[in-house]
């Protein structure tokens, strides 16, 4: 059963064809890293798949009605906006929005989902703290908890690790990996190729308006593909602790 | 003619005016020439001085009256005003008419008056008329200024005689209120207030604590329960100030009492035409007293 | 939160009753309330039912409308400085109202007045959204508001000065500052339909505004229809602000002060702030109207003066805070 299915997917922005002939299927239990150079269209692909911008071709998510879509996929945009000084619990509860009908009050099921999300992200002591007064790393965790509370089978995140310290970056990726192991799937766009290599079960590389490679990290992070897409040389090593990937030089 | 315009004058006043006019014509022909210079080209810039000047001025003495004299809302002498040039209160315009006397009111633009004086023209300013007693005084003053003392004296005599007919003692005075845009009322010590008093009404403004006039709250008007509400005809175009005259409370008072009167051009200035206003109000008061019986 | 609802409702009821019993006619409380309810047909009933009752009802409706509109605009624009008066919506509504009166349409058809005020407000709201947009910086928002207010105010003044009616020119004060004096039940019926429709439209924004806390993308991905949200906001705000301004003139700062004061009490949730601001706005206008009658009874002190005396210092404080913490 596909959690996301893109068929002949194409996106045009300001008259330019940014993406074309994209075919992508995501099954349960995958942690998919979406990688590519700046401007390759990672954010564009995810937003178009969710129906936030117009696209051509077929996306299984846009074929759904709006609320059903919200129950099928949780979206964490790059901007990490928190507009008002609400407390953490209220913010996490916002993730239940797709499950609430018009004028409906949150039910026990909703409260339970919020509790599970709080427990999973270790935010028990933060429940009544004001979200806008937390540090960057704490806010990132709160926003992930919001997506978890949505309890959608697919979680899509745009650069969730940007600006976080190493500990928080690793913790975030490990949370995603745990989610994947429990049957959900996660699609994250990343700039940090080392992080992507270590934690993702599958990598999708975008380049020149399409998918340049799609497979296990060791199959995607080959020197030729890295040079073609990113213009760099890198060192890849498989160790008992996992893959180590380190970019080295810029190639002209 | 706008709503609430002049109703035909009562016969006695009309006849005495005609007599007056004939009498004055005769008096003028035999009047001695005074030693003082009588102004020969008089321009009037103010509605009230316009009307007094037209009444008292000699043949060809008045050259121009203000534009308001031809406005039926404001002036009781619209027909007579057509026989004069119209001025708009502007200094250059008036200067070009080469007047030897200009008549103005205390609220005429100060800058214009000073400009005319600087240009060497004699300007005489008349006060606002606040009482019926001031009317004869102003007529005499106008007569003196225009060199028409005899004519003025005749008009004054006529005015006071007619006024005396109205000043009878009235026992049961019905209550009346003057209520204009913005809830403005006039107290006893105003021309409008005195018109009401002479006509036999009791002006509620005084008993409600607004003897000096001013804005009277709608609630106070309602609690006073006047039998007549005297208003003014609304201007064209809309305005919020005048909406109060259509307020349900005012409409209810108009229904319970008589259809209240309207102030019109007879009320505006201290001229003998206030006698017409007094006549109208007396009719109203009589109707109210008859309806109460 | 329901404690807040109880408190605000009680406050509004108390102020409503106070508004009914305070006035220049010297009536005792029992006298006035008996005259209102039982109606002996005398002058007291006239005063209570035709003067005080419509004024109190309008205070409730107009205050509620302005509080609600302020909370809705702040929630959508995600900016605590949004207020129908400040961003020029009230000014545009006043222009529409003045045009309908001076063109004679209001005299021909009673509902022409609030409908044209709605039209004016619509133009104002759309302009603000085009110029500043959601999550536009505070600077852009306030600049847009200044521009729209100035233009609408100038046009209003022009129309009034072109009127053949000599009173019209000085009425700019009423339209710019607002007043509930000498209103009648006619005005209540003129304003009520559009205020109710607009309030219903705005109340549907509750969930959407909450979700917008996370930004437009996240909210839309959770199933919020942003287009419908935007349309409901535009028409709802135009309806309530238009109808209020048509009968009471432009009253500013209610939509700024009330949401700001109540935000901590609803845990900053924009959806809950909607109904709380409606109640709070009603309380604020009722209190201001009572103040106006008590402090300077002989003169018609405009409501906008009182709300500005309270609101402008708060506005300055908010600007200062914005400078310190960034846009």
Question: Explain this structure to me?
Answer:
The complex is a heterotrimer of chains A (252), B (293) and C (327). Chain A has 252 residues and is an alpha/beta fold. Chain A has helices at 42-49, 66-72, 88-93, 108-120, 136-149, 166-181, 193-199, 217-220, 223-230; strands at residues 4-13, 16-26, 31-35, 56-59, 73-76, 154-158, 185-189, 202-207, 210-215, 232-239, 242-250. In chain A, the strands form three sheets. Chain A has a six-stranded mixed sheet with strand order 5-6-7-3-8-9, with helices on both faces. A three-stranded antiparallel sheet of chain A has the order 2-1-4, with helices on one face. A two-stranded antiparallel sheet of chain A has the order 10-11. In chain A, strand 10 and strand 11 form a beta hairpin. In chain A, helix 4 runs antiparallel to helix 5 (136-149). With 293 residues, chain B is an alpha/beta fold. Helix content of chain B is 46%, strand content 13%. In chain B, helix 3 (78-81) links the parallel strand 2 (62-66) and strand 3 (85-87). In chain B, helix 2 (47-56) packs across helix 6. By secondary structure, chain C is mostly helical. Chain C has one domain: ABC transporter involved in vitamin B12 uptake, BtuC (Orthogonal Bundle), CATH 1.10.3470.10. Chains A and C meet through helix 2 and strand 5 of A and helix 10 and helix 11 of C.
Structural class of chain A: alpha/beta
Report the C-alpha radius of gyration of chain B, rounded: 20 Å
**Low-confidence runs of at least 5 consecutive residues of chain A:** none
Q: What's the assembly state of these chains? A: heterotrimer
- Kindly report the spatial arrangement of strands forming the biggest sheet of chain A: 5-6-7-3-8-9
Which segments of chain B are poorly predicted (pLDDT under 50) over 5 or more consecutive residues?
1-13, 30-35
Number of helices of chain B: 14
Number of domains of chain B: 2
Give the tally of β-strands of chain A. 11
CATH topology assignment of the largest domain in chain B:
Rossmann fold
Report the mean per-residue pLDDT of chain A as an integer. Answer: 92
Highest-level CATH class of chain A:
Alpha Beta
The CATH homologous superfamily of chain A: P-loop containing nucleotide triphosphate hydrolases
- Supply Rg of chain A: 18 Å
Principal-axes shape call of chain B: globular
